[in-house]
Write a structure and sequence with these properties.
Strand order of the largest sheet: 5-4-3-6-7-8-9
Structural class: alpha/beta
Largest sheet: 7 strands, parallel
CATH superfamily of the largest domain: Glycogen Phosphorylase B
Helix content: 40-55%
Radius of gyration: 23 Å
Distance between the termini: 59 Å
Strand content: 5-15%
CATH class of the largest domain: Alpha Beta
Length: 479
């Protein structure tokens, strides 16, 4: 157990070192631009993430990274050919609004908004990135076009390659070859995505671009492209706002925030107060009327009718989260829940995870443990007595469903989430605290009143009308 705790500390230290290193690189490269956009505006923190991975496995990092991206590019090339074939069915329609979706989770964020725009017969176009995003949209019968179907620039980067080859980068934590490769990789990727975003927006010529990812490279490139073309932008909040280096100044023209706490967070980052409109979260409108379907959940997971459920929503990566931490948490929770045979402990995997990741941990699991990935998360939490997570958005979803929440924060960052400060959930910071914390959340609900106050402040959309507020905001910005 001690070994896992030390690994956690080392990872946190590596992240802090990598972020400092990233800042040092950008400080030396202030004038490096693509399409007149500073390169450092496009991929802040994504370089640091790869630097951490390089420091953790210096011997085989380059090979693994190149192999992974080669496979991804091969897959994307096939998807691109398919997307270009479907392009024949789409001519630029110059919609009032383009909604860009980068992942399945962004589909969930804006699904009710898109459905409402459909019902009102508004002029909008959905542009999707990635096969799984497109598949999810098709499932919900939302017409869309693939980002890869737009013309790809062959060499849009001007003298960027020449500039990169002549750089004198700081060599502190990783070998010079690895650092040069990583910086070149991220710089070229950012340049390609920015040029592709410009290509799409130039063809469609919308009045407004709606987006739900603003802290990753793709989101930053979309915002930068819209700004270059003088297209208005609206960021609809996706997920919790965190005290983290990836949340730098937000550059969208307008922002739809979940609640007053999120608005204050955005304003503290330098956003003008008038740019932020509190709407609530559209994806949570349905929670107001959601009814637990115990019979369905029990049947799917083969849980006896007399057993109650405790759910852990797994989080294997993101920010300072690691697979090693997640394995340690799962192992500790399995051991702890053995003391409560009246409960079934359900491990809800993240969509990117596989059961095989946890073979070793599951060997000691008894008959009261279940592991699942594809079950409806909201229904599972609605049927649970308590929900355990790390720093996932599922925590606030569980609170909206009236559930007790245990948040396990092993990042080393104090108050990375607002739950502890607002006393809305039980929060712990070490593996050794798990047994006592589980005992507490299975007992009397000591957080009910504070949880209700927190929900009202953090999510203004508990009235089920957040979707319509966002739709009205879109309509107003298109005028």
């Amino acid at each position: 157990m001690q070994e896992r705790t030390e690994k956690t500390t080392n990872v946190i230290e590596l992240y802090n070192d990598a972020i400092r290193m990233e800042k040092e690189i950008f400080q030396k490269l202030k004038e490096l631009r693509v399409h007149d956009v500073p390169l450092s505006d496009l991929f802040v923190h994504s370089l640091a993430v790869d630097l951490v991975n390089a420091m953790r496995s210096p011997n085989n990092f380059l090979l693994k990274h190149k192999t992974f991206w080669a496979a991804l590019q091969s897959r994307d090339a096939l998807l691109r050919r398919f997307s270009r074939a479907t392009r024949n069915f789409h001519q630029p329609s110059h919609p009032r609004t383009v909604i860009f979706l980068n992942s399945i989770s962004h589909v969930r964020t804006l699904l009710t908004v898109m459905q409402a725009l459909q019902q009102q017969k508004k002029s909008f176009l959905v542009v999707a990135n990635g096969y799984r995003t497109q598949k999810t949209l098709s499932t919900h019968k939302i017409p869309h076009i693939a980002l890869d179907s737009y013309p790809h620039p062959s060499r849009p980067y001007g003298k960027l390659l020449d500039v990169l080859s002549g750089l004198h980068l700081p060599v502190v934590l990783v070998p010079d070859e690895t650092l040069r490769y990583l910086f070149k990789f991220h710089a070229m990727r950012a340049a390609r995505l920015l040029t592709l975003a410009i290509s799409m927006l130039e063809q469609e010529q919308p009045t407004l671009l709606v987006i739900s990812n603003i802290t990753d490279t793709m989101g930053r490139c979309m915002i930068a492209a819209a700004r270059l073309l003088k297209i208005r932008t609206l960021y609809v909040q996706h997920g919790m706002m965190l005290k983290h280096p990836s949340y730098t100044a937000l550059s969208s023209d307008s922002m739809a925030a979940w609640g007053t706490i999120a608005k204050k967070f955005m304003v503290d980052l330098g956003t003008r107060p008038e740019q932020v409109i509190v709407t609530g979260s559209p994806q949570y409108d349905t929670l107001r009327t959601l009814r637990p379907d115990y019979a369905s959940i029990q049947k799917q997971l083969k849980i006896p009718q007399d057993q109650k459920i405790v759910t852990y929503t797994s989080q294997p990566h993101g920010f300072e989260l690691t697979l090693e931490n997640n394995k340690a948490i799962i192992s500790n929770l399995i051991r702890c829940m053995e003391q409560y045979p009246q409960y079934c402990f359900v491990i809800k995997l993240h969509p990117t995870e596989r059961r095989k990741f946890y073979r070793k941990e599951l060997r000691r699991a008894d008959k009261n443990v279940r592991i699942t990935r594809d079950i409806n998360t909201l229904q599972l939490m609605a049927c649970s007595e308590a929900v355990i997570t790390q720093i996932s958005t599922t925590a606030i979803e569980a609170m909206l469903l009236g559930k007790k929440v245990l948040s396990i924060n092993l990042t080393g960052q104090k108050d990375i989430m607002p739950y502890e400060k607002e006393n809305a959930a039980l929060c712990i910071t070490s593996l050794q605290q798990i047994a006592g914390a589980v005992r507490m959340i299975l007992g009397k609900d000591a957080f009910a009143a504070a949880r209700q106050r927190f929900i009202k402040q953090y999510n203004a959309g508990t009235d089920g009308k957040a979707t319509m507020r966002v739709v009205q905001l879109v309509d107003r910005l298109c005028r």
